[in-house]
Amino acid sequence: xxxxxxxxxxxxxxxxxxxxxxxxxxxxxxxxxxxxxxxxxxxxxxxxxxxxxxxxxxxxxxxxxxxxxxxxxxxxxxxxxxxxxxxxxxxxxxxxxxxxxxxxxxxxxxxxxxxxxxxxxxxxxxxxxxxxxxxxxxxxxxxxxxxxxxxxxxxxxxxxxxxxxxxxxxxxxxxxxxxxxxxxxxxxxxxxxxxxxxxxxxxxxxxxxxxxxxxxxxxxxxxxxxxxxxxxxxxxxxxxxxxxxxxxxxxxxxxxxxxxxxxxxxxxxxxxxxxxxxxxxxxxxxxxxxxxxxxxxxxxxxxxxxxxxxxxxxxxxxxxxxxxxxxxxxxxxxxxxxxxxxxxxxxxxxxxxxxxxxxxxxxxxxxxxxxxxxxxxxxxxxxxxxxxxxxxxxxxxxxxxxxxxxxxxxxxxxxxxxxxxxxxxxxxxxx
Length: 431
Hints:
The protein is α/β, with parallel strands linked by helices. The chain is built from eleven helices and 27 strands. Helices cover 33% and strands 24% of the residues.
């Protein structure tokens, strides 16, 4: 009897947690061969990308190296970009890997699977707004976050240089969801910290941040009380929050807001997400209007029962005519459920239906505050929290992700090492 081949494509929160679970349970015992595929060599928890962008989190220290993690947890890692699917042959195709000079390092590969899990995640949706693709930065990957960080440091240097005299540094953030709101607050925190490292002219009042939201309020996916509390905190920081404002175009010098042109040296687009466009033509699999792959309640593809889909790229309907939201908690829950269903499939048992559980939402405004709501049986519904309790709850979300990857003991050790290293390393990444 041949060993079942389980291939997971995408090393985000859901994909890496799933590969880790399957590797620990089946890979180490030789009951199944688990392969994780990703186009990057390292993993960083996506909700932390706004901290990578501002430099308050050093991705070189906090990232997980796929290959080392795979070695420790009983699965194989393959570096490559997923470009094709052959459902008849049960093969996935990976593009060649090239070095900086264009020389082929790894040739195109075809990898066989018995069960395939697609956990590809999402990308920013610019809704074909003119100029956005060329002039805005999208915080949907570590590469984009690092790009913003480099440009931010360059902008700070120019602000302190007589060669580039400017009164203020203008940053525009389009989209007042969690990413946009958290980035705005983190930028103010970073500006205050920069004074400790020789940027003496970088006072917080010289940082002019605008958050533009097309809808009637910020944080539209969250309860209104949370949105109102976050809005007040941003205004208190001096952020220019504009709601009911649509961006019609972007150029080198800023954003067009109807008849007004908003000047900005840095522009971030965080106004929505979609699954990658190539999923629309993925060997006949069914997709929705934002390219998500449609799934059954079991999280199997509606077209092919050997293919599972989790995370942001999964189109999973809810009974109330809504969709499972693209959040880290959704990816975590889906990964846990698919692990159970794959275990059932390997043992010849029936698949079970996935039920999304909303455990609440938390928005971190850096050290200026945290607000949110937690769902729980203790209060019979939703409990609004803020301040230090909310901040602890926000941090615990990342710790639970680390526990899923490393276990309790290693997570505690990692946390302690992180606290110690903060004493000896700079508060900001300055390169």
